[in-house]
Amino acid sequence: MTQYEVVMGLEVHVELDTRTKLFCSCPAQFGAEANENVCPACAGMPGFPPITNKRAVELGIAAAIVTNSEIAKIMSFEKKNYFYPDLPSGYQVTQFFAPICRNGKVEIETPEGKKTITLKQIHIEEDAGKLVHDSRAAATLADYNRAAVPLAEIVSNPDFRTAGEVVAYLEKLRSLLSFAGVSDCKMQEGSMRCDVNISVREMGTDTLGVRAEIKNMNSLKAIAAAIEYESRRHIEALETGCEELIQETRRWDDNLGETFSMRGKENATDYRYFPNPEIMPVIISEEWIAAVRGTLPETAEDKLRRMTGELGLSQYDSGIITGSKNLSQIFDETMKLFAKPKEVANWIIVELLSIAKGDNKGADDIKIDCGKFAALMRLVDEKTINRNVGKKLLVKVLEDNIDPQEYVRENKLGMVSDTGLIEAAVREVLKQNAKSVEQYKAGSQKVMGFLIGQTMKALGGKADPQIVGKLIASALAQE
Ligand code: ZN
Ligand code: MN
Fold this sequence. Notes:
Blueprint: E1 4-15, H1 54-66, E2 70-71, E3 74-75, E4 78-81, E5 91-94, E6 101-102, E7 105-110, E8 113-126, E9 130-134, E10 139-143, E11 150-156, H2 163-179, E12 192-202, E13 212-217, H3 220-240, E14 248-253, E15 258-264, E16 274-275, E17 282-283, H4 286-295, H5 300-308, H6 315-322, H7 325-337, H8 341-358, H9 370-381, H10 387-400, H11 404-410, H12 419-432, H13 434-441, H14 447-458, H15 465-478
Parallel strand pairs: 13-14
Antiparallel strand pairs: 1-11, 1-12, 2-6, 3-17, 4-5, 4-16, 6-8, 7-8, 8-11, 9-10, 12-13, 14-15
Helix pairs in contact: 2-3, 5-6, 6-8, 7-8, 7-9, 9-10, 12-14, 12-15, 14-15
This protein binds zinc ion (ZN) and manganese (II) ion.
Protein backbone atom coordinates (compact mmCIF):
# COMPACT_ATOMS: atom_id res chain seq x y z
CA MET A 1 0.00 0.00 0.00
CA THR A 2 1.22 3.49 -0.82
CA GLN A 3 2.27 5.59 2.14
CA TYR A 4 1.52 9.30 2.02
CA GLU A 5 3.14 12.27 3.65
CA VAL A 6 1.30 15.50 4.50
CA VAL A 7 3.38 18.64 3.99
CA MET A 8 2.27 21.94 5.50
CA GLY A 9 3.50 25.49 5.80
CA LEU A 10 1.86 28.23 7.87
CA GLU A 11 1.16 31.89 7.41
CA VAL A 12 0.26 33.44 10.73
CA HIS A 13 -0.95 37.03 11.00
CA VAL A 14 -0.78 38.75 14.39
CA GLU A 15 -2.00 42.25 15.17
CA LEU A 16 0.86 44.33 16.52
CA ASP A 17 0.01 45.84 19.88
CA THR A 18 0.43 49.50 18.90
CA ARG A 19 -1.71 52.43 20.02
CA THR A 20 -2.03 53.85 16.50
CA LYS A 21 -2.18 52.53 12.93
CA LEU A 22 0.81 51.71 10.72
CA PHE A 23 1.10 54.99 8.79
CA CYS A 24 -1.20 57.52 10.50
CA SER A 25 -2.21 58.53 14.00
CA CYS A 26 -5.70 56.96 14.00
CA PRO A 27 -6.31 54.68 17.01
CA ALA A 28 -5.66 51.01 16.26
CA GLN A 29 -8.02 49.74 18.97
CA PHE A 30 -10.86 47.39 18.34
CA GLY A 31 -14.48 48.13 19.24
CA ALA A 32 -15.12 51.72 18.05
CA GLU A 33 -18.20 52.81 16.08
CA ALA A 34 -17.93 51.96 12.37
CA ASN A 35 -15.55 54.30 10.51
CA GLU A 36 -14.79 56.31 13.64
CA ASN A 37 -11.03 55.65 13.46
CA VAL A 38 -10.42 56.70 9.87
CA CYS A 39 -8.52 59.60 8.29
CA PRO A 40 -7.71 60.40 4.65
CA ALA A 41 -4.40 58.51 4.87
CA CYS A 42 -5.84 55.18 6.05
CA ALA A 43 -8.91 55.61 3.83
CA GLY A 44 -6.54 55.45 0.86
CA MET A 45 -7.00 59.04 -0.37
CA PRO A 46 -4.15 60.13 -2.62
CA GLY A 47 -1.87 62.90 -1.43
CA PHE A 48 -1.58 62.04 2.27
CA PRO A 49 1.99 60.94 2.91
CA PRO A 50 2.31 57.91 5.18
CA ILE A 51 4.55 58.14 8.24
CA THR A 52 5.86 54.80 9.50
CA ASN A 53 4.89 53.91 13.07
CA LYS A 54 8.16 53.44 15.00
CA ARG A 55 6.51 51.28 17.64
CA ALA A 56 5.28 48.85 14.96
CA VAL A 57 8.85 48.45 13.71
CA GLU A 58 10.08 47.89 17.28
CA LEU A 59 7.46 45.20 17.86
CA GLY A 60 8.57 43.64 14.56
CA ILE A 61 12.17 43.64 15.84
CA ALA A 62 10.95 42.02 19.07
CA ALA A 63 9.15 39.33 17.03
CA ALA A 64 12.38 38.77 15.07
CA ILE A 65 14.42 38.41 18.28
CA VAL A 66 12.12 35.87 19.97
CA THR A 67 11.96 33.77 16.77
CA ASN A 68 15.77 33.77 16.39
CA SER A 69 15.53 35.49 13.00
CA GLU A 70 18.15 37.36 10.98
CA ILE A 71 17.13 41.01 11.11
CA ALA A 72 17.48 43.14 7.97
CA LYS A 73 19.80 46.14 7.99
CA ILE A 74 17.34 48.03 5.83
CA MET A 75 13.69 47.16 5.40
CA SER A 76 11.28 48.60 2.88
CA PHE A 77 7.55 48.65 2.22
CA GLU A 78 6.05 47.66 -1.12
CA LYS A 79 2.62 47.78 -2.75
CA LYS A 80 0.72 44.55 -3.28
CA ASN A 81 -1.94 45.33 -5.83
CA TYR A 82 -5.37 43.85 -5.83
CA PHE A 83 -8.86 45.23 -5.74
CA TYR A 84 -11.29 44.45 -2.99
CA PRO A 85 -13.89 46.76 -1.38
CA ASP A 86 -12.25 46.42 2.07
CA LEU A 87 -9.00 47.82 0.63
CA PRO A 88 -9.72 51.47 -0.23
CA SER A 89 -6.38 52.28 -1.87
CA GLY A 90 -6.48 49.28 -4.24
CA TYR A 91 -3.20 47.94 -2.84
CA GLN A 92 -1.96 46.60 0.47
CA VAL A 93 1.22 48.09 1.89
CA THR A 94 3.39 45.11 2.78
CA GLN A 95 7.02 44.01 2.61
CA PHE A 96 8.22 42.00 -0.36
CA PHE A 97 11.76 42.94 -1.43
CA ALA A 98 13.19 43.62 2.03
CA PRO A 99 11.13 42.21 4.92
CA ILE A 100 12.12 43.00 8.49
CA CYS A 101 13.69 39.56 9.02
CA ARG A 102 14.32 36.14 7.49
CA ASN A 103 15.45 32.62 8.47
CA GLY A 104 13.94 32.35 11.94
CA LYS A 105 13.84 29.19 14.04
CA VAL A 106 11.13 28.14 16.48
CA GLU A 107 11.57 25.01 18.56
CA ILE A 108 8.50 22.93 19.38
CA GLU A 109 7.87 19.84 21.50
CA THR A 110 6.47 16.81 19.65
CA PRO A 111 5.74 13.27 20.87
CA GLU A 112 9.02 12.28 19.12
CA GLY A 113 11.01 15.01 20.86
CA LYS A 114 12.08 18.53 19.97
CA LYS A 115 11.68 19.76 16.41
CA THR A 116 12.82 23.02 14.85
CA ILE A 117 10.40 24.82 12.55
CA THR A 118 12.22 27.18 10.19
CA LEU A 119 10.74 30.51 9.14
CA LYS A 120 11.08 31.95 5.67
CA GLN A 121 10.44 35.47 6.87
CA ILE A 122 8.39 37.86 8.97
CA HIS A 123 7.01 40.96 7.31
CA ILE A 124 5.03 43.94 8.53
CA GLU A 125 1.92 44.94 6.61
CA GLU A 126 -1.42 46.70 6.83
CA ASP A 127 -4.63 44.95 7.75
CA ALA A 128 -7.67 45.44 5.50
CA GLY A 129 -11.02 46.91 6.53
CA LYS A 130 -14.08 44.86 7.27
CA LEU A 131 -17.18 44.28 5.16
CA VAL A 132 -20.48 44.03 7.01
CA HIS A 133 -23.30 42.32 5.15
CA ASP A 134 -26.53 44.04 6.13
CA SER A 135 -29.51 41.89 5.16
CA ARG A 136 -32.13 44.52 6.09
CA ALA A 137 -30.63 47.11 3.78
CA ALA A 138 -29.75 44.37 1.26
CA ALA A 139 -26.32 45.97 1.13
CA THR A 140 -22.71 45.39 2.03
CA LEU A 141 -21.20 48.15 4.16
CA ALA A 142 -17.50 48.91 4.52
CA ASP A 143 -15.97 49.68 7.92
CA TYR A 144 -12.40 51.01 7.58
CA ASN A 145 -11.52 51.10 11.29
CA ARG A 146 -9.27 48.09 10.84
CA ALA A 147 -7.75 49.37 7.56
CA ALA A 148 -4.00 49.92 8.02
CA VAL A 149 -3.85 48.47 11.53
CA PRO A 150 -0.33 46.97 11.70
CA LEU A 151 0.14 43.24 11.33
CA ALA A 152 3.14 40.96 11.38
CA GLU A 153 2.90 38.00 9.04
CA ILE A 154 5.05 35.06 10.08
CA VAL A 155 5.72 32.76 7.13
CA SER A 156 7.10 29.31 7.85
CA ASN A 157 8.75 26.87 5.47
CA PRO A 158 6.79 23.69 4.70
CA ASP A 159 8.19 21.93 7.78
CA PHE A 160 5.00 20.55 9.33
CA ARG A 161 3.91 16.93 8.92
CA THR A 162 1.07 16.56 11.45
CA ALA A 163 -1.78 18.61 12.91
CA GLY A 164 -0.14 18.12 16.33
CA GLU A 165 3.01 19.91 15.14
CA VAL A 166 0.92 22.79 13.80
CA VAL A 167 -0.93 23.19 17.10
CA ALA A 168 2.31 22.99 19.12
CA TYR A 169 3.85 25.68 16.89
CA LEU A 170 0.87 28.03 17.21
CA GLU A 171 0.91 27.64 20.99
CA LYS A 172 4.63 28.35 21.02
CA LEU A 173 4.24 31.44 18.82
CA ARG A 174 1.41 32.70 21.04
CA SER A 175 3.60 32.28 24.10
CA LEU A 176 6.69 33.92 22.53
CA LEU A 177 4.81 36.86 21.04
CA SER A 178 2.41 37.56 23.92
CA PHE A 179 5.14 37.44 26.58
CA ALA A 180 7.29 39.78 24.46
CA GLY A 181 4.34 42.21 24.21
CA VAL A 182 4.26 41.96 20.40
CA SER A 183 0.57 40.98 20.27
CA ASP A 184 -2.05 39.62 22.63
CA CYS A 185 -2.51 36.75 20.12
CA LYS A 186 -6.19 36.13 20.88
CA MET A 187 -7.42 33.83 18.14
CA GLN A 188 -11.08 34.22 19.10
CA GLU A 189 -10.81 38.02 18.72
CA GLY A 190 -8.90 37.80 15.46
CA SER A 191 -5.62 39.25 16.72
CA MET A 192 -3.97 35.97 15.66
CA ARG A 193 -5.09 34.33 12.41
CA CYS A 194 -3.72 31.32 10.65
CA ASP A 195 -3.66 30.10 7.06
CA VAL A 196 -2.46 26.57 6.38
CA ASN A 197 -0.87 25.57 3.07
CA ILE A 198 -1.29 21.86 2.69
CA SER A 199 -0.31 19.25 0.11
CA VAL A 200 0.11 15.50 0.12
CA ARG A 201 2.80 13.43 -1.61
CA GLU A 202 3.93 9.84 -1.73
CA MET A 203 6.34 9.05 1.07
CA GLY A 204 9.91 9.13 -0.19
CA THR A 205 9.39 11.61 -3.03
CA ASP A 206 10.57 15.16 -2.68
CA THR A 207 8.42 17.05 -5.15
CA LEU A 208 5.47 18.78 -3.51
CA GLY A 209 1.89 17.80 -4.33
CA VAL A 210 -0.87 20.19 -5.41
CA ARG A 211 -1.33 22.74 -2.69
CA ALA A 212 -4.52 24.02 -1.10
CA GLU A 213 -4.61 26.98 1.26
CA ILE A 214 -7.10 26.86 4.13
CA LYS A 215 -7.82 30.38 5.28
CA ASN A 216 -9.12 32.21 8.33
CA MET A 217 -9.44 29.65 11.07
CA ASN A 218 -10.12 30.96 14.53
CA SER A 219 -9.40 28.13 16.94
CA LEU A 220 -6.76 25.46 17.41
CA LYS A 221 -9.50 22.84 17.42
CA ALA A 222 -10.81 24.01 14.03
CA ILE A 223 -7.29 24.06 12.60
CA ALA A 224 -6.59 20.50 13.70
CA ALA A 225 -9.94 19.28 12.34
CA ALA A 226 -9.47 21.12 9.02
CA ILE A 227 -6.02 19.57 8.55
CA GLU A 228 -7.36 16.06 9.20
CA TYR A 229 -10.23 16.63 6.75
CA GLU A 230 -8.05 18.15 4.05
CA SER A 231 -5.34 15.44 4.26
CA ARG A 232 -8.04 12.77 3.84
CA ARG A 233 -9.50 14.60 0.85
CA HIS A 234 -6.09 14.80 -0.86
CA ILE A 235 -5.21 11.16 -0.19
CA GLU A 236 -8.59 10.02 -1.48
CA ALA A 237 -8.19 12.10 -4.64
CA LEU A 238 -4.71 10.64 -5.22
CA GLU A 239 -5.83 7.05 -4.60
CA THR A 240 -9.13 7.00 -6.47
CA GLY A 241 -8.78 9.82 -8.98
CA CYS A 242 -12.36 10.77 -8.13
CA GLU A 243 -11.45 14.44 -7.84
CA GLU A 244 -8.82 16.49 -9.61
CA LEU A 245 -6.74 18.49 -7.13
CA ILE A 246 -6.19 22.10 -8.12
CA GLN A 247 -4.29 24.91 -6.49
CA GLU A 248 -6.96 26.83 -4.64
CA THR A 249 -8.04 28.66 -1.52
CA ARG A 250 -10.48 26.83 0.72
CA ARG A 251 -12.47 27.70 3.79
CA TRP A 252 -13.25 25.52 6.80
CA ASP A 253 -16.88 25.20 7.84
CA ASP A 254 -16.95 24.37 11.54
CA ASN A 255 -20.59 23.23 11.52
CA LEU A 256 -20.29 20.89 8.56
CA GLY A 257 -16.80 19.74 9.50
CA GLU A 258 -15.68 20.22 5.88
CA THR A 259 -13.57 22.53 3.76
CA PHE A 260 -14.99 24.08 0.60
CA SER A 261 -13.47 25.96 -2.31
CA MET A 262 -13.46 29.77 -2.18
CA ARG A 263 -11.46 30.64 -5.26
CA GLY A 264 -8.56 29.55 -7.41
CA LYS A 265 -5.38 30.95 -5.92
CA GLU A 266 -3.51 33.47 -7.99
CA ASN A 267 0.22 33.08 -8.16
CA ALA A 268 2.25 35.55 -6.14
CA THR A 269 3.32 37.42 -9.30
CA ASP A 270 -0.31 38.29 -10.02
CA TYR A 271 -0.14 40.86 -7.24
CA ARG A 272 2.34 42.98 -9.23
CA TYR A 273 4.38 43.95 -6.20
CA PHE A 274 6.21 47.19 -6.72
CA PRO A 275 8.19 49.67 -4.66
CA ASN A 276 6.29 52.28 -2.72
CA PRO A 277 8.05 55.60 -3.33
CA GLU A 278 5.99 57.37 -0.67
CA ILE A 279 7.44 55.41 2.23
CA MET A 280 11.06 55.79 3.26
CA PRO A 281 13.01 52.57 3.87
CA VAL A 282 13.83 52.02 7.55
CA ILE A 283 17.44 51.49 8.65
CA ILE A 284 17.66 49.03 11.54
CA SER A 285 20.91 49.61 13.44
CA GLU A 286 22.62 47.19 15.82
CA GLU A 287 22.07 49.76 18.59
CA TRP A 288 18.36 49.84 17.94
CA ILE A 289 18.15 46.04 18.03
CA ALA A 290 20.13 45.99 21.29
CA ALA A 291 17.81 48.61 22.80
CA VAL A 292 14.72 46.56 21.90
CA ARG A 293 16.39 43.42 23.24
CA GLY A 294 17.02 45.28 26.50
CA THR A 295 13.32 46.01 26.98
CA LEU A 296 12.13 42.45 26.40
CA PRO A 297 10.61 40.87 29.52
CA GLU A 298 11.18 37.31 30.69
CA THR A 299 9.99 34.64 28.23
CA ALA A 300 7.56 31.94 29.36
CA GLU A 301 10.44 29.44 29.36
CA ASP A 302 12.66 31.63 31.56
CA LYS A 303 9.76 32.18 33.91
CA LEU A 304 9.04 28.44 34.08
CA ARG A 305 12.69 27.79 34.93
CA ARG A 306 12.59 30.42 37.69
CA MET A 307 9.33 29.08 39.11
CA THR A 308 10.45 25.44 39.23
CA GLY A 309 13.96 26.40 40.40
CA GLU A 310 14.23 29.40 42.68
CA LEU A 311 10.56 29.40 43.77
CA GLY A 312 10.31 25.63 44.27
CA LEU A 313 7.00 25.16 42.46
CA SER A 314 6.02 21.98 40.67
CA GLN A 315 6.46 21.60 36.92
CA TYR A 316 2.70 21.16 36.62
CA ASP A 317 1.71 24.34 38.51
CA SER A 318 4.41 26.39 36.79
CA GLY A 319 3.28 25.07 33.41
CA ILE A 320 -0.30 26.17 33.97
CA ILE A 321 0.67 29.66 35.12
CA THR A 322 3.24 30.29 32.37
CA GLY A 323 0.79 28.89 29.79
CA SER A 324 -0.98 32.25 29.95
CA LYS A 325 0.58 35.68 29.97
CA ASN A 326 -2.34 36.99 32.02
CA LEU A 327 -1.96 34.36 34.76
CA SER A 328 1.80 35.00 34.83
CA GLN A 329 1.17 38.70 35.36
CA ILE A 330 -1.36 38.02 38.12
CA PHE A 331 1.17 35.69 39.75
CA ASP A 332 4.02 38.23 39.58
CA GLU A 333 1.90 41.17 40.74
CA THR A 334 0.44 39.23 43.66
CA MET A 335 3.84 37.86 44.66
CA LYS A 336 5.10 41.43 45.09
CA LEU A 337 2.52 41.90 47.86
CA PHE A 338 2.33 38.40 49.30
CA ALA A 339 5.55 36.51 48.71
CA LYS A 340 4.47 32.92 49.31
CA PRO A 341 4.82 31.26 45.88
CA LYS A 342 3.09 27.96 46.76
CA GLU A 343 0.08 29.71 48.27
CA VAL A 344 -0.25 32.18 45.39
CA ALA A 345 0.08 29.42 42.77
CA ASN A 346 -2.46 27.32 44.63
CA TRP A 347 -5.05 30.07 44.88
CA ILE A 348 -4.62 30.90 41.18
CA ILE A 349 -4.83 27.32 39.93
CA VAL A 350 -7.39 25.83 42.31
CA GLU A 351 -9.69 28.77 43.06
CA LEU A 352 -9.27 31.52 40.48
CA LEU A 353 -9.24 29.20 37.46
CA SER A 354 -12.24 27.17 38.61
CA ILE A 355 -14.32 30.30 39.19
CA ALA A 356 -13.35 31.51 35.70
CA LYS A 357 -14.24 28.13 34.22
CA GLY A 358 -17.67 28.30 35.89
CA ASP A 359 -18.19 31.68 34.19
CA ASN A 360 -17.05 30.26 30.83
CA LYS A 361 -13.92 32.38 30.84
CA GLY A 362 -10.42 31.40 29.82
CA ALA A 363 -7.22 32.12 31.74
CA ASP A 364 -6.57 35.19 29.57
CA ASP A 365 -9.94 36.78 30.41
CA ILE A 366 -9.54 36.87 34.20
CA LYS A 367 -9.33 40.36 35.63
CA ILE A 368 -8.57 40.79 39.30
CA ASP A 369 -7.19 43.50 41.57
CA CYS A 370 -3.97 41.80 42.70
CA GLY A 371 -3.79 43.98 45.83
CA LYS A 372 -7.13 42.62 46.99
CA PHE A 373 -6.19 39.10 45.94
CA ALA A 374 -3.04 39.34 48.07
CA ALA A 375 -5.01 40.86 50.98
CA LEU A 376 -7.45 37.97 51.12
CA MET A 377 -4.64 35.40 50.97
CA ARG A 378 -2.98 37.21 53.87
CA LEU A 379 -6.20 37.07 55.90
CA VAL A 380 -6.29 33.29 55.43
CA ASP A 381 -2.57 32.92 56.06
CA GLU A 382 -2.77 34.88 59.32
CA LYS A 383 -5.79 32.78 60.29
CA THR A 384 -8.06 35.81 60.55
CA ILE A 385 -10.49 33.86 58.34
CA ASN A 386 -10.57 30.23 57.26
CA ARG A 387 -10.01 29.07 53.72
CA ASN A 388 -13.68 28.57 52.97
CA VAL A 389 -14.53 32.13 53.90
CA GLY A 390 -11.51 33.13 51.79
CA LYS A 391 -13.01 31.39 48.74
CA LYS A 392 -16.28 33.26 49.21
CA LEU A 393 -14.36 36.52 49.50
CA LEU A 394 -12.56 35.76 46.24
CA VAL A 395 -15.90 35.55 44.43
CA LYS A 396 -16.89 38.89 46.01
CA VAL A 397 -13.59 40.48 44.93
CA LEU A 398 -14.13 39.28 41.36
CA GLU A 399 -17.79 40.25 41.19
CA ASP A 400 -18.09 43.39 43.31
CA ASN A 401 -14.46 44.38 43.79
CA ILE A 402 -14.96 44.46 47.59
CA ASP A 403 -12.13 45.27 49.99
CA PRO A 404 -11.42 41.98 51.81
CA GLN A 405 -10.40 43.48 55.18
CA GLU A 406 -13.32 45.84 55.34
CA TYR A 407 -15.76 43.18 54.20
CA VAL A 408 -14.58 40.73 56.88
CA ARG A 409 -14.90 43.41 59.55
CA GLU A 410 -18.34 44.59 58.45
CA ASN A 411 -19.77 41.10 58.07
CA LYS A 412 -18.06 39.69 61.17
CA LEU A 413 -16.46 36.85 59.22
CA GLY A 414 -13.37 36.65 61.42
CA MET A 415 -12.51 33.21 62.65
CA VAL A 416 -13.74 32.10 66.08
CA SER A 417 -10.49 31.76 67.99
CA ASP A 418 -11.98 31.51 71.50
CA THR A 419 -11.23 27.87 72.41
CA GLY A 420 -13.90 27.94 75.14
CA LEU A 421 -16.55 28.80 72.57
CA ILE A 422 -15.43 26.02 70.22
CA GLU A 423 -15.36 23.48 73.09
CA ALA A 424 -18.91 24.43 74.06
CA ALA A 425 -20.03 23.88 70.47
CA VAL A 426 -18.24 20.51 70.37
CA ARG A 427 -19.96 19.38 73.60
CA GLU A 428 -23.34 20.34 72.21
CA VAL A 429 -22.75 18.56 68.89
CA LEU A 430 -21.55 15.37 70.59
CA LYS A 431 -24.60 15.39 72.86
CA GLN A 432 -26.98 15.73 69.94
CA ASN A 433 -25.24 13.08 67.85
CA ALA A 434 -24.90 10.27 70.33
CA LYS A 435 -25.30 7.70 67.57
CA SER A 436 -22.30 9.02 65.66
CA VAL A 437 -20.27 9.01 68.88
CA GLU A 438 -21.18 5.33 69.33
CA GLN A 439 -20.10 4.59 65.74
CA TYR A 440 -16.83 6.40 66.30
CA LYS A 441 -16.13 4.32 69.41
CA ALA A 442 -16.92 1.20 67.41
CA GLY A 443 -14.06 2.17 65.11
CA SER A 444 -15.69 4.20 62.34
CA GLN A 445 -13.32 7.04 61.38
CA LYS A 446 -15.76 8.35 58.81
CA VAL A 447 -18.04 10.02 61.34
CA MET A 448 -15.21 12.38 62.31
CA GLY A 449 -15.77 14.41 59.13
CA PHE A 450 -19.47 14.60 59.89
CA LEU A 451 -18.88 15.79 63.47
CA ILE A 452 -16.42 18.45 62.28
CA GLY A 453 -18.98 19.59 59.72
CA GLN A 454 -21.73 19.86 62.35
CA THR A 455 -19.48 21.85 64.71
CA MET A 456 -18.36 24.18 61.90
CA LYS A 457 -22.01 24.77 61.06
CA ALA A 458 -22.79 25.56 64.70
CA LEU A 459 -19.99 28.14 64.61
CA GLY A 460 -21.31 29.77 61.44
CA GLY A 461 -18.48 28.28 59.34
CA LYS A 462 -16.01 30.64 60.96
CA ALA A 463 -13.72 28.35 62.96
CA ASP A 464 -10.47 26.69 61.97
CA PRO A 465 -11.52 23.15 60.96
CA GLN A 466 -8.18 21.75 62.11
CA ILE A 467 -8.61 23.11 65.63
CA VAL A 468 -12.22 21.87 65.66
CA GLY A 469 -10.98 18.40 64.68
CA LYS A 470 -8.40 18.35 67.44
CA LEU A 471 -10.91 19.45 70.07
CA ILE A 472 -13.43 16.81 68.94
CA ALA A 473 -10.76 14.12 69.05
CA SER A 474 -9.73 15.04 72.58
CA ALA A 475 -13.38 15.28 73.71
CA LEU A 476 -14.08 11.83 72.26
CA ALA A 477 -10.98 10.42 73.91
CA GLN A 478 -12.40 11.49 77.26
CA GLU A 479 -15.84 9.99 76.64
ZN1 ZN B 1 -5.82 57.11 9.70
MN1 MN C 1 -0.60 38.85 4.71
